[in-house]
Amino acid sequence: MEREAKIPISVIIITFNEQDNIKECIDSVYDWADEIFIVDSGSTDKTLSIAKQYTDKVYDHPFENYAVQRNWAQSRLPIRNEWIFHLDADERVSNELIAELKEVVCAEAQVDGFMVARKTIFRGRCIKHGGHYPVYHMRIFKKSKGRCQDRLYDQHYEVKGKTIKLKGDIVNIITPDITVWKSRHRKWAYLEAVEILSNKHRILNVTLKGSPIEKRRWFRYKIYYRMPLFIRAWVYYVYRYVFRLGFLDGKQGLIFHFLQGLWYRFLVDYELCKRIRIH
Question: Residue 159 in contact with residue 114, Cβ under 8 Å?
Fold first, then answer.
């Protein structure tokens, strides 16, 4: 398959049993990205056979956590471009973002990183309310300037230098299988609880000044986690679903905001209680 003019960006995609997602993910970058890397951690489905139809840059590395995996990929892969783009297998790059990248990557010489909003699609509907969109993430940056934070959960990329927001989106396709999503919630809740209890010094150092990510963490650690266990999950859900207009996202939004805004927060508090009792 021939590709037309490419943007000097190296895309890194982390995978594990993503046969239902990987084709559309790669399709969204194949025509414009200069090179595509797949970093897999032992997939047993058709993920690798699909990926190899698009690129020969397929690597295997045992999975420890997302931060370790992403930083290993960034430091050990034979990346030839200065700009890298970290992408998850359940994400796609919008046409608007592609057009924008064609203009800014080479033109913005003084910029070291781009923050991009992530648009969530849940059961065919875009989740636009409840404070869920737009939320900006650092995903595209110069390899020498950025690195993933060493955290068990809620890892973000930190860039030393000038960063700007782009208008185009990354589109995140949430699995329609509620059982799978709830299983992931259980894993993430455990990791978040461990992260909170083992990194109290980071919680104390969060600031309201800085990037959108830092502001969200300030709210979480300085306000949310100072509320009573379990009650705060209800407070957050009501705030998100009522005051931030999550109900406007329809029946899909009802399920999404309930699971992510209430159910998941209950799981985190449950894991915190278990960890506190253990210690």
Answer: no
- Mean pLDDT value of segment 188-204: 76
Local confidence band at 279 (pLDDT 50, 70, 90 cut-offs) = very low
Structure-token pair, residue 250? 């329809």
Nearest alpha carbon to residue 58 among 78, 34, 84, 87: 78
**How many residues in the chain?**
279
Dihedral angle sign, alpha carbons of residues 153, 159, 160, 164? negative
- Domains (range + CATH), the chain: 7-174 (3.90.550.10), 178-278 (no CATH)
Confidence check: pLDDT of 235 > 90: yes
Vertex 244, ends 243 and 245: CA angle to 5°?
A: 90
Q: What angle do CA 109, 135, 212 make, to 5 degrees?
A: 65
**pLDDT at res. 277:** 65
pLDDT at 132: 92
